[in-house]
Protein 1
Amino acid sequence: MSSGTVFTLLASSRNIRRQIFLVGYGKMMMNISLNWQTVLVGVCFGFLSYYVIKRLKYRLPPGPPCVPIIGNVQVYTSRDPHRKVFKMVDKYGPVINVSFGPVTWIFLNTIEVVNEAFVQRAEDFAGRYQITSGIMFTDGGKDIAFANYSPMWRIHRKIAAKALRHYLHGSLLEDMIQENMSKFMDRMVKETGPFEPKQYISLMVFHQLYTVCFGERRPPDDPEVREFLEIYDRFVVDFGAGSLEDLVPFLAHVYETAKFKNLVRMKEKMFSFITQKYNRHKESFSPGINRDLIDSLLIAKHEAENDNSEGEDTEEFDDVYLIQTVSDIFFAGIDTTKTIMDWFVCFMSGHPEVQAKCREEIGNIGSRQLTMKDRHRLVYNEACLYETMRLAPAASLGIPHCTLCDTQVGGYDIPKGTVVLSNFYAIHRDPHHWKNPESFDPSRFLKKDGTLNAKPDSYLPFSAGRRVCLGEPVAKPELLLMCATLLQRLELCLPEGVRPCYEGIPLSFGMEAPKSYKIVVKDRQNANC
Ligand code: HEM
């Protein structure tokens, strides 16, 4: 209530006692409103002092001008911050400071500064920025991707890496790829006109990871898989958009927004599903038999417990950690793999001459099922995959890191607790390292002797250092086999008269898929089409 309202009330009142009451009440209200104003001014002053002291104490990287507290709204509310920041590199250099509200975010835009931070000063930059919805989703940081750097995280990551190695050993993955892809390619060849390949790719990848994790092979329309996929898709969109609780963390303890409550409900549904599968595996587990990734995890955990030569404390490592790993693999694997496949099909249908070269290479192997052992004979196919990941990194900004101590990069100070992102979109287009960076040219990944140049200078689709993608050793051969298996059977063409388009649409923070496009396919297995 404002003081004006109180005076109006006073003037119209005939009752003196009531007047006295109102004066008292008005004063009290004025005091309250004054207190709120004081608090507000105090908070603003606090932030400003913090802002000024930080500027004076540290030599922070440059960045676009911003309003204190509010920050660079045009960057953090945009759906393509990787592009926006890339455009700033000429003006501000490779290390750019962008304010997300009152929080400082540092973008690293060249391979040189990313290597300095993530590899040379690996431990300083190995933390993760903690947000409320992330903490909720990971049962308080019991996963790998969002957990902060800690001894428990190290054990967790080591066991998961071992499990992936167990999984890659043998022919589990290649058999499953062939079986799974055939189901969906059989459907694609039945399309009589131009169609969007997105839906098929999405189902293909989801079923693939479903089988990787749970060992179950399900028909394409299986209702259980569909239900899980629907919840997953809704969760990814809502989680990616962020919630108020992430901006104002204490809110989650006082009052939960409807959006956050819904996120919690979806998380519980997904986790009760994964937990059920996990428990069934545990009941039927036998260390000598490896049916899928859950078995691989159980084997790796047993080994870690039996052979604890480094004296690590594995006692607190309970089932929740392993269930969280399964969830990590699902979440980290699906959208990245799906997006890369989508771009691969988009580039291949727009470049028939490149596609023909891939098919020629596959043809030299024959029409039998492709296996991991064929990798060295699929060099041109792999170069196409690498070029796809260069132009369209599945996670252009990776997952935000957080500094664990005061440190430096590119000659600037980076205070403890700063959010740091590597901009792979910028690194993969750096004109100092890439000629005609915007053109699709797989030959840039081939050496003079025709072998694959797997580690070019400015190329990091899986990041580097302590938090490098855990799935890289699986994702690369898996994607190669998936893409080559697709081209072995299908010729991917644009509908007649349609020109290629390689424009992206932002999905979530730093992620882009190709704009909606249609293709027609020719079945090479039954070459009568
Ligand atoms: C084309 C496919 C993929 C790409 C391009 C990709 C890329 C990335 C990137 C850029 C990061 C962030 C690294 C950082 O914070 O510096 C990451 C993290 C991660 N990825 Fe992948 N990824 C892919 C597939 C996969 C798959 C299939 C799995 C699971 C088997 C996986 C599991 C993870 C995990 C667990 C992390 C978190 C690592 C940590 O924080 O220690 N990724 N990935």
Protein 2
Amino acid sequence: MALNPVLGKLVSKRVVLASASPRRQEILTNVGLRFEVVPSWFKETLEKSSFAAPYEYAVETAKQKALEVANRMHVKHLRTPDIVIGADTIVSVDEQILEKPVDKQDAYRMLSRLSGKEHSVFTGVAIIHCSSKGNQLETEITDFYEETKVKFSDLSEELLWEYIHSGEPMDKAGGYGIQALGGMLVEYVHGDFLNVVGFPLNHFCKKLAELYYPPPKHTVQHIKHDSIPSVDTFENLSDGESESSNFTEHKGAKKLNSSSMCPSRPVYNCENSSSVRTDSMVPLGNQNGASESAAKLPSKIVDLMDGFKASKALFVASKLKVFDYLKTKGPLKAVDVANEVGTSVCGTERLLDACVALGLLEKTSQGYSNTDSANTYLTSDGEYSLHGYIIHSNDHLWPLFTNLESAVREGSRQNHRAFGRKAEDLFKDYYHSQEVKQRFMAAMHSIAHLTARDVATAFDLSQFKSTCDLGGCTGALAHELIQIYPNMKVTVFDLPEVIANISYFQPSEQCAAPVTFLSGDFFKDNLPEADLYILSRILHDWPDERIHVLLSKISAVCKPGCGILLAEMVLDDEKKSRSTALLQSLNMLVQTEGKERSGSEYRGLLEQHGFANVKIKLTGNLLDVVLCIKT
Ligand SMILES: Cc1cn([C@H]2C[C@H](O)[C@@H](COP(=O)(O)OP(=O)(O)OP(=O)(O)O)O2)c(=O)[nH]c1=O
């Protein structure tokens, strides 16, 4: 089994791990899988006696965890993932299933049952492939389980309690963690160690190999020593799946004349356009007749090299309002789209075809039409439209990013290079013209609206009677808060230039209570009184010195028990993951003096101003949430 190509199949897919288990996240991150974490809300309460065997319980629970996340993302966030992975680990001893202990006594009961005996650890795994057909979620479920046998030594009462008091047992099946202190209790392990820790990686990769590389009809033995599989297009060389391909599809190998063979490079067969890609599971012969694996273009790197072209194709199609025309008039032929938007037919056809390949449009004999997600996110007037942000990305961020090299060399923003004027103040830059201001507000509104529900529900905020969203712009989050907490008094405080332009963005249906909009500068003016101050995507705009000014102002008006809620992309402490957030930090470099920060960095800033009990919630959506309370 070749691991990289198997995991590489997932590179181009939106993969979601439906688990809060840090161990599962680590196991999958360690092998380079890129995924979002959306913990499942499925309660592990299936009736155990209704399952003939313990592993059936684990598999069913894993499946339900994953299905809950797939459904929630589809319905609530309108974001259908490609793959959702769920897992459930249980310990089975004397026909009994042990899950996580509910308290120390429960941990004691579990560990004393395991003492001196062999038990089984089962992890059930569900891999759910999702697609959305006309707003319906369609799923294809693959599941499996893995068993590992573990034997404990005889545990003395003293050792047992010492272990329980360490706190380690509480979030682990059977009440122990083999990877840490619990390892000292173990006499032997038969089977996959990682399965005990929560995820049977080896079996998972084999399952993916089965799914993505089912045994080819014409297998390796049909290939002669002097033959190599041929490839056709650049695209087919990547080991990532194309959007439209089915996950069970297997592309067979074809023969190519040995004279065109070059073992160290991918081989193109220009004559045969119907030939297919090399597959690393098919051995290649080299000139000496020895077997050698094919050199392949690394799909991840190819995707990155192409990323800017894909972004620009999306930006241009959005700018030309292609998605708006197709929503109202589609399906349309390229010539009709070109006539509508006033562009060349040949250029338009290529743009539309690229959008089809990128999964934004569909193409049939009738012509081009929008996909569901283009209708939802890419038309300019939809409730969840990202059009504003896309235009902002094209007109503002693109020129800034073309100066990324200078930004990295100089360590500072590049507004002067991109726009020929010296940046005075971030927001003065945005608000110097009505057009730029409205574009920026539309961009901020679209992100705030799409993340508002997750931000507003990350913590129970019912204890706060009044809230002030500092820099709350169009009030997208404020309106969501009132939906969820109808008795909450919500104020948005933002610059006068912003408040003067909010009317376009107000919801047509009135909320239970209206949002109050107040104009002012939170660095200069008095802050309105509130129990909770919200700073959503504000701190990332500023360097630490300015943040201290703002936090000390808030701290001065905040009574004990009142709080601050931050909504930001929170980086992990090692700053290794979430490319969206780390790229956003480059985005802050090219245009501000701010940056994205880690949970510890936010905690450190807040604690210096008398805020404690700092809790961080990773929402799985674009913005994470930090809540803290004034002591
Ligand atoms: C036996 C054993 C379990 N565990 C962990 C793995 C799992 O995280 C946990 C079993 O609980 P699970 O319910 O499988 O998983 P979870 O609650 O941690 O996360 P989620 O339900 O969101 O997926 O026990 C260890 O870390 N080490 C061990 O030695």
